[in-house]
Structure formats: C-alpha cells, structure tokens
Specification:
With about 160 residues, the chain is mostly helical. It has a two-stranded antiparallel sheet with strand order 1-2. Helix 1 crosses helix 5 and helix 6 packs across helix 7. The relative contact order is 0.17. The mean pLDDT is about 90.
C-alpha cells in the first residue's frame, strides 16, 4: 500500500522518505552527496535528514547532531555500507547485473530503514527554528568533516 505525500503528516517517517527520494532525484544534489560520501565518508542519509528538518523549521544543536550521527553508525556500518560495497563491486551486465540490481534493491530497503531510525532520533532532539545551514553544518562536523569543508559543501548544495 503506497502513501500519498498530500495525505501524510509532514513529520512522519513516510514524509522523510518522500523528501529524501525527491531531493535525491535532483541530479546535482545526488552527485554532490555521492562525492561527499566517497571523498569524506559522510553518509548521504544524514544530510538528507538535516535538510528535511530544516524544511520543517526544525534544527539540531551540535551535541544533538552528534547523537544523530552516533545512533546511525551501527546500522550504517553493519548493513548499509556492506551492501553498498557489494553493489559497487558488481558489473552492470549479464548475471552479475541482475545480482547487482537485487543488491541495489536491498541497499535501498536498508537505507529506508536507516531513515526510519534517524527519523525517531532526529525528532527526539529537534528544536524549533533550525536554520538549514546550521543543522547541516552540525551534522557534517559531527560526522568528522572539518568546518571549512562543511561550509564549502553547504554553499554548493544550497546554491
């Protein structure tokens, strides 16, 4: 059963999923998020959650961003990253391509579960009036990115 965006609560886990899929569909955003992931090891789901919170006029303080990142690490390390690594290893053609497609489907399902987990933590720590740039910066720095690189990334993503 599918959920229609117009009928869901804007703060629901389904709304976060819809936001993430829509934001990811913007090619320039997807490319930048993948580049951030590949160069700096920052999971795109964390940035997508920060952007979603900002769209609701919510934000995270630095210590709350650190709690969000810490809560995500076990699922990311045990499930999402291994699936991602397998998918990236497989070729796109033939039987390997079919297996790659199946692994990609599993990776996407794992990411959705990851977003559901992040959703619960994010709303637990969110505060009213969060600026998108501040929340993204807090999440990026909590993920291990230096402030200058975080600022440059945010400028690119918000342009």
């Amino acid at each position: 059963m599918s959920v229609h965006p117009e009928t869901m609560s804007p703060r629901s886990a389904d709304a976060l999923w819809h936001f993430a899929v829509t934001d990811w569909a913007r090619p320039e955003h997807a490319e930048r998020l993948i580049r951030l992931q590949d160069r700096h090891g920052i999971d795109p789901l964390l940035v997508l959650v920060a952007r979603w919170l900002a769209s609701l006029d919510l934000g995270l303080a630095d210590n709350d961003a650190a709690a969000l990142v810490a809560a995500h690490q076990p699922w990311l390390g045990a499930v999402i990253q291994p699936l991602r690594a397998v998918r990236r290893t497989l070729r796109r053609e033939g039987a390997e391509g079919q297996l790659r497609d199946e692994v990609q489907r599993l990776e996407l399902a794992a990411e959705r579960i990851g977003l559901e987990r992040l959703h619960a933590v994010a709303l637990q720590h969110a505060r009213q009036g969060g600026a998108a740039c501040d929340t993204m910066s807090a999440v990026l720095v909590a993920s291990g990115l230096d402030s200058a690189t975080a600022a440059a990334f945010i400028e690119q993503l918000c342009s």
